[in-house]
């Protein structure tokens, strides 16, 4: 798919059957990807977790996860397939998760993002997230700092 293509994006809850596609995206997106077992536990066992996928023509092209803790949501991960980047899918996923949080009575959302990942930081800022701190050496592969970002949700 090329940037600017008109595509219909469907958001839905992540299912075990999605994990083959999720793992392809995860491995391509992250230097230290989550394992399939980690995703399975999140879907099956973690009652505080919610994961949604973005589909284009029946193909999973991105996903986002969150942990809901009291009245806060902690984004655990978000990724979009390389072939579908630059098409607004990451923004659509974040909008879907923000909407989900509103419906759940969540008042604040937080996430960590690599200090070098300015593309993601810019997306999050456009979505209303603010830089609130640094976690030094947060990422084990290279000891890169994480930028901590927060968003207050208007209910």
Radius of gyration: 15 Å
Low-pLDDT ranges: none
Structural class: alpha+beta
Number of domains: 1
**What spatial order of strands do you see in the largest sheet?**
1-2-3-4-5-7-6
Oligomerization: single chain
CATH architecture: 3-Layer(aba) Sandwich
Quick check: average pLDDT? 92
* Major sheet summary line: 7 strands, mixed
CATH class: Alpha Beta
Q: Supply the number of helical segments.
A: 4
Rough shape? globular
CATH homologous superfamily placement: Gcn5-related N-acetyltransferase (GNAT)
H-E order = EHHEEEHEHEE
Gap between N and C termini? 35 Å
* Helix-residue proportion: 25-40%
CATH structural fold name: Aminopeptidase
Descriptive terms for the model:
single chain; 155 residues; alpha+beta; Aminopeptidase; 7-stranded mixed sheet; 4 helices; 7 strands
Structural notes for this entry:
- With 155 residues, this protein is an alpha+beta fold.
- It has one domain (9-152): Aminopeptidase (3-Layer(aba) Sandwich), CATH 3.40.630.
- It is 28% helix and 38% strand.
- The chain has helices spanning 19-29, 36-44, 89-103, 118-126; strands at 9-13, 49-56, 59-69, 72-80, 108-114, 130-139, 144-152.
- The chain has a seven-stranded mixed beta sheet.
- Strand 6 and strand 7 (144-152) form a beta hairpin.
- The termini are far apart.
- The model has no long low-confidence stretch (mean pLDDT 92).
